[in-house]
Write a structure and sequence with these properties.
heterodimer, A: 361 residues, 2 domains, six-stranded antiparallel β-barrel, six-stranded antiparallel barrel, B: alpha+beta, Thrombin, subunit H, Pdz3 Domain, outer membrane lipoprotein receptor (LolB), chain A, elongated
């Protein structure tokens, strides 16, 4: 009977082995390409011609003044990441063969973190990525990142290549507070260090040369203080890029509570009364703590100087209010305050507001 | 209970069997893995873990020949000291001594001691690398290997012929280097980069570090092995090797062309005709399309090499051959330990200091000889002896210390006579006498050693030096002559270079200084065929900013049991001066 069979332990392991041996010829028959060479260089070379080096605003402190872009139309439309580098009238674009052009912003969608540039001069027959041929890939796919990270390449030198694997496909915005990330859609997380200074706007391709995504900017996980390497799938960007180029693009209307400076919560919601904000930068001293409030439960005291809100440095009442405005019900509000000569960390719960307490300042 | 157990086992069985059914690994992948393993096994024994004699700090290196020569980074050897300890994967720790250094290029040559059969990796060809090729880096990152077994990382070549600026207070310039995403970290410096066939193609040494700290961030850089090959004999000479400049600076024009921005009047490039505004088309045979590419090419050659350059002016292309000048002043290479108490301007390039605690092992102590301008003078003597020993094939000139007389026919000007003695050198040609007095002349007199035979660049003095070199007085190098004339004040082995700019014809070079080390009046470069050691000719230079008198020997003749040049072809400033056919040679014996 059944039980008897399974009692014989050697039988348990015997079967799988037999099956394996039986299947070995099948395995060899299905053996794939024999090459052990690196990723196909013709696939790389062709794509390198479509990657451009962008030079624009920046160059002070840690803000790099360069990034990467992808040519998407033969007459000079280039897609790149929306960043401070584009904070200027015209940017300089250098092609793979060393040709230099000036380019202007043709359109942008900051929500998707992309901008489309157009080369000012009349050009044609530029090598370009056909976005309609971009592919979606699964986790585990081997990929290459092409970008001008660290601005290593100049003139007619080709961009740099990294190799790696797609480690995950996920939404980063789900971890709000952990990532400063406006983009709501899916990203590819890659195990190669693709996201370096200047790499934003580069290409993520498969080893056979198909376009997969656009490399994003440098992004840090604030909880673990680690850097994330990610790329935007072209499928998420394609439609917007096409409509920007065709001129039919209209930026997503922002709903009032999704604006740049939300004011979902204010200091008094927690029972904190701050100094009157009369100076250009009024220090964020606690003037009074309402008894029985969240703040008093967390043991916040008068004369505490708020220094950090959830790891963001606060240098004024305005900044504190801005940070409070971004909170959402369920979050934990972590404050670091200076009390006398000591630094004290406090945690307050962000409670759901009842209808009649929601007011705008 | 039992039921759940059996059910559980059934599930496990299914899971395992399904995995073995469907999780098949492509045999190509297994083969690739086995190939990788085999290559790593083959090359690992040649990888060196370098430690400073005190044991703290270190890096990596790679053995390139069985007698123990190994390559590493200058910034590894400079902190390791003159004698260091090197671990190999056999678990043994070997003593090693510094041989030669190239501070600008960040390369150092050391020699492991105690064996003549070290496992080694022969140098490959880094020009064959393509973007996307697999590469291995091996070494001792984070000094993890306490058993000296090397750490291996694997990645691709991200870029080739890259340029990396000297960063911060650094002067280390990585020109024409290999960019890799193969992980290299502190400790990997000086270690080898192999292609996937296990050929040595680079020496790892640098990375782009920014926000993520001093750990691999996806961009590492290795010095190309082809650059190191150019410097190899220079490194073996035990000298502190310098890189080169053309004496000109370049910039990119609006249209992308690379043009000469400024040029030193006294540079050889200027003397050959290069001017401001000229567009550089190619250099050393490689097309130039950016300033980085120009710097890349300049960076891989030692000073003193003659390199071809093509430029365009007003629609016309011209080609010249230029000898590269030194990038740094010799004072830049001063040791930071100064004997004098006088406070001097801080030198730009500090040299390695001997670690105070390190005591050289007694049996190898003789293998380090200190001398200004050298990493290790011991090796220079070694190389010089190798070259001079082959000179003895010409016969025994040591007794011919008396006056020399050469008679023959010149292609223009008819017959010529050369009379050389310790006191003077005289050329009689075309009915005129050209005299260079040697003894009794104050070497500080600027006009003492000028070109005597017009348009030759120093032919008369060259003859004097030839006699010195052959009859052995040249070998008696006397230091601190206190102004006494008539002897070489230094004779060293320089390295090897392409003869007259021909890359396929590499020659050994000795350099002699005549009269005084400061403001020497004549520097001669002696060229020897690398395979059979024949003396091919020599150049005499009357000053750094003057074109040399070039003499090339065409054939030798037997005279009195010795070999003497049959024909001497004399050139100066790119023009033929004379072809001297030597018909009779009288060499007097003397004291």
């Amino acid at each position: 009977m059944r039980i008897g069979l399974f009692r014989n332990r050697s039988f348990l392991f015997f079967i799988p082995k037999n099956l394996l041996i039986a299947l070995m010829p099948v395995m060899f028959l299905s053996a794939g390409r024999k090459t052990t060479a690196g990723p196909r260089s013709d696939a790389i070379g062709k794509n390198l011609t479509r990657v451009v080096k962008i030079y624009g605003a920046g160059g002070i402190r840690k803000l790099h003044a360069y990034s990467t872009g992808l040519i998407v139309r033969s007459d000079g439309y280039i897609v790149t990441v929306w960043s401070h580098v584009l904070d200027t009238e015209e940017v300089t674009v250098v092609l793979n063969d060393g040709r230099r052009f000036q380019a202007k912003i043709h359109g942008a969608e900051p929500q998707l973190d992309i901008a489309v540039l157009k080369i000012v001069k009349k050009v044609q027959d530029l090598p370009f990525f056909d976005l309609s041929k971009a592919v979606n890939v699964s986790v585990g796919t081997r990929v290459l990142g092409l970008s001008n990270m660290f601005k290593v390449a100049t003139g007619d030198e080709p961009a740099s290549i990294l190799h790696g694997v797609v480690a995950a496909k996920t939404k980063l915005s789900a971890r709000r507070g952990v990532f400063d990330f406006p983009y709501d859609g899916l990203v590819y997380i890659v195990d190669a260090i693709t996201n370096n200074p200047g790499a934003g706007g580069g290409a993520l391709i498969t080893r056979s040369g198909d376009l997969v995504g656009m490399i994003g900017k440098e992004l840090k996980n604030r909880e673990s203080n680690t850097w994330v390497n990610y790329a935007y799938p072209i499928s998420e960007l394609r439609e917007t890029i096409d409509s920007i180029i065709s001129g039919k693009f209209v930026s997503k209307e922002k709903k009032p509570d999704e604006d740049e400076n939300p004011t979902r919560y204010i200091a008094s919601d927690f029972g904190m009364v701050l100094l009157p904000d009369v100076l250009y930068r009024t220090p964020a001293y606690i003037d009074h703590v309402v008894s029985g409030s969240e703040a008093s439960k967390a043991k916040l005291k008068e004369d505490d100087l708020v220094l950090f809100v959830n790891d963001e440095l606060i240098q004024s009442v305005k900044e504190l209010q801005k940070q409070l405005g971004k909170l959402e019900a369920g979050d934990t509000l972590r404050l670091v305050v200076r009390r006398g000569m000591k630094l004290v960390t406090l945690e307050l719960k962000v409670r759901k507001k009842s209808a009649n307490t929601i007011k705008k300042q | 209970m039992k039921k759940s157990c059996t059910l559980f086992s059934l599930v496990i069985l299914l899971v395992f069997s399904s995995r073995s059914l469907f999780a098949q690994v492509d045999s190509a992948v297994i083969e690739a893995q086995n190939r990788r393993i085999a290559v790593v096994e083959k090359v690992a024994p040649s990888v060196v873990a370098i430690f400073s004699a005190g044991g703290n700090g270190g890096g990596s290196g790679v053995l390139i020949s069985s007698d123990g020569y190994a390559l590493t980074n200058y910034h590894v050897s400079s902190s390791a000291g003159t004698f260091m300890k090197c671990g190999l994967s056999d678990g043994h720790l070997y003593d090693a001594v510094i041989v030669g250094i190239d501070p600008t290029g960040d390369v150092a040559l050391v020699k492991l001691l105690g064996r003549d059969n070290f496992p080694f990796s022969p140098m490959g060809d880094s020009d064959k690398l393509q973007i996307g090729d697999w590469s291995f880096a091996m070494g001792n990152p984070f000094l993890l290997a306490t058993d000296f077994k090397t750490t291996v990382t694997y990645g691709i070549v991200s870029g080739t012929h890259r340029y990396q600026y000297p960063a911060g207070r650094n002067f280390l310039e990585y020109t024409d280097c290999i960019q890799i995403d193969t992980s290299i970290n502190p400790g990997n410096s000086g270690g080898p980069l192999f292609n996937d066939a296990g050929e040595l193609v680079g020496i790892n040494g640098r990375g782009s570090f920014e926000k993520r700290g001093r750990v691999n961030s996806g961009a590492g850089y290795a010095i190309s092995i082809n650059q190191i090959k150019n410097f190899m004999d220079h490194l073996k000479s035990g000298r502190i090797v310098d890189h080169a400049t053309l004496g000109a600076s370049v910039s990119t024009r609006e249209d992308g062309a690379v043009v000469v921005q400024s040029i030193l009047e006294e540079s050889e490039a200027a003397r050959r005709g290069l001017e401001e505004g000229d567009e550089i088309i190619s250099f050393a045979g490689r097309p130039i399309r950016s300033v980085n590419q120009y710097k890349n090419i300049l960076g891989i050659y030692p000073k003193g090499w003659k390199i071809p350059l093509v430029y365009r002016r007003g629609g016309e292309k011209k080609e010249i051959s230029v000898r590269l000048r030194a990038l740094h002043r010799s004072s830049d290479f001063q040791s930071t330990k100064k004997k004098k108490k006088v406070k001097k301007k801080r030198p730009r390039i500090p040299l390695p200091r001997k670690s105070p605690k390190a005591k050289p092992p007694a049996k190898y102590k003789h293998m380090f000889v200190k001398k200004s301008g050298f990493a290790n003078f011991y090796f220079n003597n070694l190389q010089k002896k190798r070259v001079m020993d082959r000179l003895s094939k010409l016969g025994d000139y040591s007794k011919t210390k008396g006056a020399w007389k050469l008679l023959g026919k010149a292609d223009k000007g008819g017959a010529f006579i050369v009379n050389v003695s310790d006191a003077q050198s005289q050329l009689t040609i075309g009915g005129k006498n050209y005299l260079q007095k040697i003894s009794g002349v104050d070497p500080r007199d600027d006009l003492a050693f000028e070109e005597r035979y017009p348009g030759s660049g120093g032919l008369v003095l060259a003859m004097y030096n030839l006699r010195l070199f052959l009859n052995g007085s040249g070998k008696l190098v006397k230091e601190n002559t206190n102004g006494k004339t008539g002897l070489f004040t230094s004779l060293i082995y320089l390295g090897s270079e392409p003869m007259d700019g021909q890359f396929q014809n590499s020659v050994d070079v000795l350099v002699s200084d005549f009269i005084s080390e400061k403001g020497s009046k004549a520097v001669c470069r002696w060229y020897f065929n690398k395979t059979d050691g024949t003396l091919l000719g020599f150049d005499t230079s009357l000053g750094r900013d003057k074109d040399e008198c070039q003499i090339r020997f065409d054939g030798f003749q037997e005279i009195d049991g010795r070999k003497f040049p049959k024909i001497m072809k004399v050139r100066h400033a790119n023009r033929n001066v004379a072809t001297l056919q030597i018909e009779s040679v009288e060499l007097a014996t003397g004291s």
